[in-house]
Amino acid sequence: MRIPVDEELPLAREISIRLADDARAIESGEPCALLEAVTPTTAELLRWWFDASLSAGRPDAFHEGQRDAILAIVYAHEVLGASNLRELYERLAPSALSAAARQELAHERHGHPKYAAKLATGTGKTWVMNALLVWQHLNHLATPADPRFSSNFLVVAPGLIVYERLLDSFRGRRVDGVRDPSTSELHARRALFTPPRHERTIAALLASGVVEKHEIGLRVPTGGMIAVTNWHLLAGTEDPDFAGDANGGTRSRRRSADDPARAAVESMFPLSPGAAGHALEALDRRAQRGRPLQSLVDLPDLVVLNDEAHHVHALRAGQDASDVEWQQSLTAIASTKGRRFLQLDFSATPFDETGGGGRPRRRYFPHIVVDFDLHAAMRRGLVKAIALDKRSELAALPLDFTAERDEHGAVVGLSPGQRTMIRAGLSKLALLEAQFAEIDPERRPKLLIVTEDTIVSRHVEEFLLDAERLDPEDVLRVDSGRRSELGPREWEPIRARLFDLDRQARPRVVVSVLMLREGFDVDSICVVVPLRSAGSGILLEQTIGRGLRLMWRGDPVVEELKRETRERMRRGLEPANHFDVLFIVEHPAFEAFYDELLGDGLLAIVEDDGIAAVGDLERVELRPGWQEYDLVVPEIVREHEEELVEPRIDPRSLEPCRFELAVLRRAVGRGERWSSHDLQTRTQYGDYRVDGGVMTATGYNDFLARITRRIATVVGRTFTPAAARFSAASRYPLLVTHRARIAAWVDRYVRDRLFGEPFDPTLDEGWRVLLLPGVAEHVAGVFSTALVEAQQHRTVATALVEQRSVAEIGSTLMRARDAVPSRKCVFPALRVASRGGGLERRFIEWADRDGRVEAFIKIDEYAHTFLRRPYLRSDGLPAWYSPDFLVRTSEAVYVVETKAQSALAHPDVERKRRAALDWVETLNRLPAAARSGRRWHYVLLGEEAVDAWRRGDGRLSELLELERLSAPTSGGAPTLH
Predict the structure, then answer these.
(1) Does the first or last residue of the chain, that is N or C, have fewer Cβ atoms within 10 Å of its Cβ?
(2) Which long-range contacts (CB under 8 A, 24 or more apart) does 103-111 make?
(3) Is the pTM of this model over 0.70?
(4) Residue 372: helix, strand or coil by DSSP?
């Protein structure tokens, strides 16, 4: 875990120190103190989320910062179990309890369990919220009487944008005006958040439990509730950004306060003909404004999740912290619940700024339990790098971000400085658009212009349309002024365009004031022009935070370029490419302010020197006449008739155990219970428990039943001491219908073959030798291998075959330095690895010179997915394998794997070879016409053989044929295909 260095975060620092070892243990699948201290449900969730062996095959995974936040909150709430914030300090950081701290913690707003997570913008706070919601709900269902858990949730947003994003997460995105539950994040990413056996439980909560703002107090679901609202509901006010709210009512009350006569009339006649906001629905909402708050007070338990929580604790000028109305509402809600109320706050900027001048002092929230700040996120490449676009024409400008105004203070237009900065942003945008389009036309960078107020935003829009000649479809103005100009129906299409920004070519430019400073979660903002002075650290980080989310993900070549960018910036150099770099068009005088915030080599200053946005990355298209060098791969789409053959195993043919029976008998007494003892203290510290209870068998029949369950359920030799981990792995049994047959085979194997001599396990408790280390593992291993191989034998009638082309990917990305020219490939150049790619480079050059090689291709494991082969790793887990090359001659197609000499002996290399051999044998059983009349062969080439053959002027085709003839055939190791 990351250990905070800031002394103002004592809780986060102490928790990170305590949990560092536990986090590593959970990731590696080992037992630890934290897993022993939490409930079984929590332990199951933590393993599901963070155990590397369980999360390896999933498309999504929590990163380090998200993991630390979840673990910290679970530990603080479930293990420490403090009933209020002061008690948490006493248990974690008593030395931080100064007189001022004790006075602050004595306030009633800290009188319940509350924790804050400091997570940088763009690092996925919503995923953490979803995980904690699942943690609370499943634990509450398991133990309803436990006051630490609840199934009632209130999710609080600061405004319309975040509110809509949270509804998207819990209720689903709008499709044709209706929210689609299948697009909710908890459902779409259920493999990440929810173990399979709990999926229906969470689905039921999402189906009936999500309550929108206007429904709070009217609908209380019985199976749990996720109520989503804005903070205004707690403060008893209306948010003018919300569609359908009584905006006019707020204005009427303000006018009434100034006009006693009007107030008297309105007290008797609340309806004014033609007055805005006086619809019956609006008056009904106004009359029942206290109902939602009272319904929350009446709930027996509640978890409040405050998104962008700096709003909850923000202070206005002249206020004490106790004056924030909606914090008072939270306190009122908590007052009826005691320990059954939990407050979780999430923010990238959980602090207040006090003091004037250029160096305001930050006062952090006292309940921060985890700190994963922007520095940490940028170092790990979880957000974009940041670069100030330093231009000579900006350096000469006066330090003025404000618009031009007349003598009355009214805005009359943009200042010359503002116009210059907008043009600078448009120039950078055009550069990125042109060069990114050459690499991936679907990645469309956008420009965000942040203005000082809604009037200036209108002038910016006019400037873009009139002076810069942009098409109206290219500009989207989003601010509260625009929102108030339009009705709900007119606003909805604008909102839809805004949230779909990443997938659309237009708009290219978004203009806003502060409406988009939070919750605007798009990836494509690459340039920000702040037409206002960033007067505070909170506003600065929120402004640049709109563009921090990664735009380029998944491509290994781009990831390498991004790593180089971070390394260059760490060394104080300009980035050599612009992949996932956020450009801030800012006056150079503000450089020191940015550097003070970010520092540590995380900020770059870029000049107008013509650096290519894509670095040396190139998109290589198919060569003219590529059809001559195309390789066609037959892919068996489905079998015409498939019939799974019942497994048949001869126990007498299986490999015997390496241990001698006589030696094992001497190592075992009768009737003892095996346990471990410390030789110095004579302290017993645990008995054996191995994989589903095999080692706790109480008799031979019990052992036989347990080992049969183990064999039929989980493929592989690996045993684990964690019962819950075995339970997770055994959720999908392999051969549940054949357990009786497997038990009979195991019994015959134990009696006749295991020790190479007859053995009666029931005689003199002889079965106990089966519990000695290595014996049960051997039995499970030989049967797992045999059963997997038996499963591969199928009777096949006519197969349906689809011909796949290596050229169907159309193009490929590569760096100029990693490109090797080729004359016999569908592409004019092939990509090799930047590091350790020497053998591949020599292979390509050699194949290109061999006159008997008709065509070849370097397989792209990310693009040529139809060439990936499944196999079982040596630890028993399934994995995917992509060979290095396909080589075609006049008579054969070779599937080639090149390996450094030191890697040839690795057990997984052998397992990959057997999987590939099974695959080519399957292809060779197809009719000749389905495989271009050529036979397929697999060849594993070591570096020494390649170099020796090349030095002797031998042909590659000859080496392939020789290695093919000398290689052993398939069989003997578990394979999947």
Answers:
(1) C
(2) 104/366, 105/366, 107/321, 107/322, 108/331, 108/335, 109/321, 109/322, 109/327, 109/330, 109/331, 110/84, 110/85, 110/86, 110/366, 110/367, 111/84, 111/85, 111/331, 111/334
(3) no
(4) strand
